[in-house]
């Protein structure tokens, strides 16, 4: 959980620095945030697939090799990056301009987003390399590396954004350059420790067929995990478009929420990553009776830790909102309302997140996609649509509160259904359900 905490704290502090650049850079970054979120979730989906693949390989007699784990992952990453570069060549200015912001704002947003997309290969490699260590159960090493990377990011951010001495700084894109430098160093360190722990193959055993098979296995799971993960940012893009019609203050609030929500949900990311690995190991070892217990333990930890994390945000809602907004008073009431009602109920969404990301590890990927699709694309987007329809952002926040509580109910049903389905006789093999 330390690594996820460090990442979310660094993201939140990054938004604080951006807010101090002024109102326009904050709104510009807020417009770009859901698109960056989309790409980051794809990276996280690929990383999750690699973690599961590596951990399952460790449980099997033959173990893993550098060739059948790391290289296929990096090949998949390179393929995804090629698609990203094609996306960067699109008319992003027109896409961002459709959000209704002033030309000076969406032009800044376009430059910020394009710069970030060009360096996405660094973010992707960092995600893959940290997942490599998690799959090898090197949790402590991975956490330390991520924490150091985040600290470097926090130190480099103001230097590259605001400058120092005779150096004027890069402004908004300086935030991207800081992330590049920190993540590139972290990726190299993770790969070094992972290769040391993984059995290497000799020149005679480089088998292209084996490497392609490993890449296929990872891709199959990554397709599911990434597809499911992208539901949230796709919903976020639509939500940002709807809320942008209400005003700049609401757009800025969406940007702050995009940084605060992951910070608030730190326990969810940490517990989910570990729970997924435990579920995959239990499934490979055919300890199906432990699946329900693992889900319940994960839910209990999410509920306990989520409540503990939420309380400070509720008690200090006003100061936190002012700190995040950098003096932008118009958005203050919206952020305060968000902090008062969402953190204490977001455990429900976190429980469902854990459930749908744990299901692919026990070969229930289709179920995960169906549940997440309805919950996110239909219900979550619907909350913002209601706020847009009634021209009331606070109403959208109240709808999100109810949606969070519904998530807890669905999560309990998922765990019960998964346990029952594993105890039943096996159905005929379905290729799309396998990893």
Low-confidence stretches are 201-206, 427-435
Number of separate helices: 18
Indicate how many domains the architecture comprises: 2
Judged by helices, strands and strand pairing, the structural class is: mainly alpha
Distance between the termini: 26 Å
Order of H and E elements: HHHHHHHHHHHHHHHHHH
Quantity of strands, as a count: 0
Rg from Cα:
21 Å
Helix share of residues? over 70%
Task: Describe the main β-sheet briefly.
Answer: none
Mean pLDDT: 82
Shape, per Cα inertia axes: globular
* Share in β-strands: under 5%
Explain how this protein is built.
80% of the residues lie in helices and 0% in strands. It is an all-alpha fold and 435 residues long. It has two domains: 1-229, no CATH class; 232-435, no CATH class. The longest helix has 37 residues, at 23-59. It starts with a helix and ends in a 12-residue tail after the last helix. The chain crosses the membrane at residues 34-54, 66-90, 116-133, 145-170, 176-195, 221-243, 263-280, 301-325, 331-356, 368-387, 393-415. Keywords: Membrane, Transmembrane, Transmembrane helix, Transport. One of its GO terms (molecular function) is xenobiotic transmembrane transporter activity. Pfam families: MatE.
Features:
single chain, 2 domains, mainly alpha, 435 residues, 18 helices
Explain the layout of strands and helices.
Blueprint: H1 2-19, H2 23-59, H3 66-88, H4 92-97, H5 103-118, H6 120-135, H7 139-162, H8 174-197, H9 208-229, H10 231-244, H11 248-264, H12 266-284, H13 291-315, H14 317-325, H15 332-341, H16 347-358, H17 365-389, H18 393-423
Helix pairs in contact: 1-7, 1-11, 1-12, 2-3, 2-5, 2-6, 2-9, 2-10, 2-11, 2-12, 3-5, 3-6, 3-9, 6-7, 6-8, 7-8, 9-17, 10-17, 11-15, 12-13, 12-16, 13-16, 13-18, 14-15, 15-18, 16-17, 16-18, 17-18
